[in-house]
Amino acid sequence: MEVMQVLGNRRSIRYYLPHRPVEREKIQKMLEAGRRASCVGNVTVARAVVIWKDQASDEMMKAITPPIGYQQMQTAPCFILWYHDKMSYEGDKWINNMKELATQRRIGEDVEKTHAIIEKSLRPAFGAAWEQMAVAPLAFMDVGQVVAQATMAAWDEGLGTCLMSSPRIEQIGPLLNLPDTAIPVCLMSVGYPAESWEAGGQTSRPPLEDLFFEMEHGKPFKSDPAVVEELKKDGLIQTPAPLPWRDAELKYIAHALNLEFQLAVPGPAQENGDGS
Fold first, then answer.
1. What are the tens digits of pLDDT across the range 11-51?
2. pLDDT band for position 269 (50/70/90)?
3. Which tops the pLDDT comparison, 264 or 25?
4. Which of 31, 50, 72, 213 is the least buried, fewest Cβ under 10 Å from its Cβ?
């Protein structure tokens, strides 16, 4: 399938087939796809813990349950906690990561000279500021890229996913044996969709011109109608939600899975809402 079609077809899936387990090899493919994502300075900050629902304790499930997410928590057979490890930015480690880029001929034209420049110019700065840089926006951007690639890999394997809340470290850290340097970013539900792949249509977004600018903030990047039509043909832009049959589908799924509607599940306070 072409990239634009994959991106257009992607949906946040909230209803899964609870009786159908996710193959371990498919989770591995998701993790491998994430591991290949671009990252600043080759530091590789993203980490993950795979949680199989049938092996998790009640305490664990309660700790990762977000305020909004009753469908996912009741039906998904697998969850992935994505987190950022601040020690990925530790000065000596970062310097070695940069040197490895030179050794692999990814930066610089001469390995020894590039290593020397890194030692002279970058080591002092990294040594003094790595703790601040470890919690800067670039660090969390890298986690986002990893999660995005894992999401695309999941879709390619016939799985659905949904990004949910960010569990609080004090509640899940001891249960998952996370290091003190871990910063949970998001919980992802994974499973085979019980709802159609369209999931009632493509979630609407604000207009392009409201989000993106050219040369300066406030000067919209103008959308070209011809490009919009091309993207519709490629499958990136699709019919917006809700499709006419969505209400009937939701009622059918709730009945088939014996789900009781509730907007929120009582549980630990968590950050953010789920994906769309």
1. 999 999 999 999 999 999 999 999 999 998 899 999 999 99
2. very low
3. 25
4. 213
Pull the structure tokens for residue 147. 């999660």
Tally of structural domains, the chain: 1
- Please tell me the distance from the alpha carbon of residue 220 to that of residue 206, in angstroms, as a whole number: 13
Establish if 201 belongs to a structural domain.
Answer: no
| Position 170 in a domain | yes
The DSSP symbol for 258 reads: T
- Tokens encoding 17: 């087939």
Model pLDDT for residues 151-198, shown as the tens digit of each residue: 999 999 999 999 998 888 899 999 999 999 999 999 999 999 999 999
| CA 20 to each of CA 8, 31, 49, 73, 231: distance values in angstroms, whole numbers, following the listed order | 25, 20, 21, 15, 34
Q: Which residues span the domain enclosing 40? A: 11-196
**Structure token digits, residue 55:** 């092996």
